[in-house]
Structure formats: structure tokens, C-alpha cells
């Protein structure tokens, strides 16, 4: 096997001595990498091995993925599949025989793990599933021996993948999730996070990318993860407040923006967003003050920093300020 595809892990179980990267698991089971990452983020099936900051799948994880794919493909509800996997995780470590001698099958209302002498009921199910673990071992070896498709340089660091993702995001039109630039940016951010699971800026940027295509729950999860890695990540704080405003919760947005302003009093995003949230609840006087702070902050930037959407928001803020001053009689 290629050293780039497999990592040796010290363990007493010969069947669990290999660790498999998400790309190899994707090829093995013909599952999109994005689905494997989603399963991991939601706690459905997570890589159980961590080496030098990276996460990998164990062979037991591969068994869980194989079972999940077959059961979901046969139409079993997700919650029942989750219960089956929970039971498998409990029962597999109890088996004394090497994993290669196990079989996993599903018949009638039972998911069963078998070794040469015992059967273990895992959970309910009503599909035909007969998984020979030795065959899975052989399939893994075949997939890992296959040549990789040519692509971006695999030796890139997490930061280099992050920069590449930023480049592809800049090339994206901003409205078509099928645009190759969007797909490449998302995959590159994922690669950066594979290499450095504590990369807060990558979580923030990927969350913003998801928000742009309407995946607000996914975006919120990524912003929360960014703040877990770096509680002082102002961009993630601003984005969470913006999501609250976008989903019709101005009170939460106000609290979020005010918290950000306590840490970063000159944040243009916070002043502008807080003004919008205050207007949504009728706080016109306070909104006027924050819009004026926003305009003054933009005017204090160098000309090159005022390009694009920032200039457009300043123009909009100027019109709103004029209207508020007339309405409030403040000049």
C-alpha cells in the first residue's frame, strides 16, 4: 500500500492497525467526501483515529460506513440506522476473533454481527444485508492500491489549501452552487480542515459559502465551530448575528452585534448590522448613531479598501441616515 494512503497506528488489534483518509474512504464506498464530512459533523459516523492533528477512519469505522450505506440505500429510516450503528459500536469490541473473521448481516427485524461461534443482535432492520468483513479487507487493499487521479498538489499545507479556497471563492459568481469554482472552493476549505481541524478562519469562510447558497444550518454549525476554535473570531461572531437577522430574529442579532462591539468597538460589520437589527425593532435613534459610526469608519479607510460592497453599503447607509434625520428632526 502507498504510504500516502495509509497510516500505521500502534494498537493491539491487527485488524485496526490502519488508518484511512477521507479521500480513500470516499473512493472505496463511492460516497462523496462532502457526505462523509457531513456524517462526521453530525456525529453519525466520525473518524475515530487522530494522528498529528489529522483525523482518520479505522477499519471498524469502515464497517459502520458499509453497514450505513447499505441500510440507507435499502430505505431504512436514518434513526433506525443510527440505533443499529450504536449497537455495532458496542458489540464489535466484545468480539475476541479478528475482525476479518466477522460477518455482518441484516434479516427480518435484526442486524446481526457473527463470528465463528456467536451472533450479536445489533438493532432492528428489514433488509437483506450480508457483509463479509474479509471481503471488505480485500476491497480496501484494492482501492488503496489504485493510482490517484491527478489534482492539486497533495503536499499542500492547511494554509495553502485555505489560500487556494479563497482564490476559487473569489472566482465564483456568488449564486450558482453548481459552478465549478464553488465546488473547488468548498472542497479546498474541507481539505484545509482535514489537515488542521482547529483552523477557525476556514470554518468561517466555509460557513459564509454555505450561507450564500441557502444552507443556513450548515453555515451556523461552521460559525459555531470557528468560535469553539477561536472565541475571538470576530468574523464568525458577525456572521452568526447576520444569520439571526436573516432568519427573522432581530433580538438575537442585536445581542450578537453588541457582544462583538464590546470586543471590537470599531467593527464596521457590527455597526452596520446592529443598525439594521435596531431598525427592525423600531430603535431608530440608536440605529442612526450606529449608521453614522459606520459611515465615519468607511470614510476613514484608504480608497482601495472602500471598493465593492462596502461602498454600496455606505451609499445605502447615507440615504437611510438622511431619512432618519428628517424623521427624527435631528438635522
UniProtKB/TrEMBL annotation:
What InterPro entries does the record tag this protein with?
DNA-bd_dom_put_sf, MerR-type_HTH_dom, TPR-like_helical_dom_sf, TPR_rpt
The HTH merR-type domain extends over 20-87
GO biological process terms, alphabetically, are: protein O-linked glycosylation; regulation of DNA-templated transcription
Q: TPR repeats at which positions?
A: 200-233, 234-267
Question: Would you say which domain of life the source belongs to?
Answer: Bacteria
Annotated keywords: TPR repeat
Can you name one GO molecular function term for this protein? glycosyltransferase activity
Organism, by scientific name, is Nannocystis exedens
Q: What is this protein called?
A: Negative regulator of GroEL, contains thioredoxin-like and TPR-like domains
- Pfam families assigned to the protein according to its UniProt record, in alphabetical order: MerR_1 (PF13411), TPR_16 (PF13432), TPR_19 (PF14559)
